[in-house]
Design a protein that fits this description.
This protein is α+β, with helices and mostly antiparallel strands. It has 2 domains: 195 residues, no CATH class; 112 residues, no CATH class. The protein has 9 helices and 9 strands. The strands form 2 sheets. Strands 1, 2, 3, 4, 5, 6 and 7 form a 7-stranded antiparallel β-sheet that branches. A two-stranded antiparallel ribbon has the order 8-9. α2 packs parallel to α3 and α7 packs across α8. It starts with 41 loop residues before the first strand and ends in a 13-residue tail after the last helix.
Length: 338
């Protein structure tokens, strides 16, 4: 095997090579569209990850799993389960800058590009399944796979140890690039030693989600059948603010809420100004589907390492609010309407 190939060998002995990372972005993928996450992130291509970025090591100089190799493993697993994908869309944050040894004594302003080094502490990527698009509440949604990774969660100061990743699959709204993630599509924090581990865990997640994808879509689509009045929206917002100030022992008796004040403020602004999901002229209510999109849009300002869990929490919260509004609450979401 060529030394430049990335070997990922799950149970069946499949091999993933670096050719997976030579993505050519189709013209339609270059069209401007909202980012799937904002925060302090910037876009980066696979080619830039390969050519511009160094790969961090553990204390004994053992390489960590390069971002692009992790992406390749997840991408290959998704292709095996769902079929053809769009090229990956990557966003990074928290650049760690350095310099080569020969430039140790140079002023920063005099450094050439060849003397600078960089790697990104955090990365997230998504790709769409080309054959799986649907319509929900008049909006096109796409089945989307992806991964989040943050080096700050790994112990790079020690000997090689499992590295942490978050894998996900769910439906994304095209008009706003909001991911609507449910529990069945979120791997949580998984630990991997090799690209093969990433492949296997991604394959397991995607294979388990595949039979549930239409059921999950129906669950989200059903949110469009329940409406929230302006006064109910205000009650919910007020309770969400109160929740943040409650003692821990009281919070434990209520449903988990990971949506902070900053996201709540953004959702309130969206209720008034968002052209797609806010309160429209002449109407006095929005649907729980629209409220979900307001919160999903708001939590896109979350750092990469917290974004996925908060995204799922938005879905859990609005599904719970819907049950409370429909009189089927068994988990305590009615508290947010009192």
């Amino acid at each position: 095997m060529d030394n430049n190939e990335l070997a990922v060998v799950p149970v069946e002995g499949r091999i993933v090579s670096d050719s997976l990372l030579n993505f050519e972005v189709a013209p339609e993928e270059n069209a401007e569209h909202p980012n799937f996450i904002e925060s302090n992130t910037e876009a980066i291509t696979i080619d830039q990850l390969v050519s511009r970025c160094i790969v961090p090591t553990f204390s004994d100089n053992t390489l960590t799993i390069a971002h692009q190799n992790a992406i390749g493993a997840v991408y290959k697993a998704a292709e095996e389960v769902f079929g053809e994908l769009t090229p990956p869309e990557c966003r990074v944050s928290h650049a760690i800058n350095g310099r080569v040894a020969s430039a140790l004594h140079k002023p920063a302003k005099d450094l050439t590009d060849d003397e600078k080094t960089v790697f990104y502490q955090r990365i997230a990527f998504i790709a769409h399944v080309k054959s799986l698009t649907r319509i929900v509440a008049g909006q096109t949604v796409e089945l989307t796979i992806g991964m989040c990774r943050a080096y700050n969660e790994d112990k790079l100061y020690s000997r090689p140890s499992p590295e942490k990743f978050r894998l996900f699959v769910g439906w994304k709204v095209r008009v706003c690039s909001n991911l609507c993630l449910t529990c069945s599509g979120n791997s949580g924090l998984v630990e991997c030693m090799t690209e093969a581990d990433i492949y296997q865990k991604a394959y397991q997640l995607f294979s388990k989600f595949d039979p549930q994808k239409e059921e999950t879509l129906e669950l989200l689509e059903n949110l469009n059948n329940t409406r929230i009045s302006e006064s109910q929206f205000c009650y919910i917002i007020g309770r969400m603010r109160l929740y943040q100030a409650l003692p821990n022992e009281v919070q434990k008796t209520l449903p988990v809420l990971e949506i902070g004040d900053q996201a709540v403020n953004a959702a309130v602004r969206g209720f008034v100004t968002n052209p797609n999901f806010g309160l429209k002229e002449g109407e006095t209510s929005i649907t729980t589907w629209e409220m979900l999109q307001l919160f999903n849009e708001a939590i896109k300002q979350t750092y990469i390492d917290r974004w996925i869990d908060r995204n799922q929490n938005c879905t859990d919260f609005l599904l719970g609010i819907q049950k409370a509004l429909d009189g089927n609450d068994t988990e305590g979401y009615s508290w947010f309407l009192q």
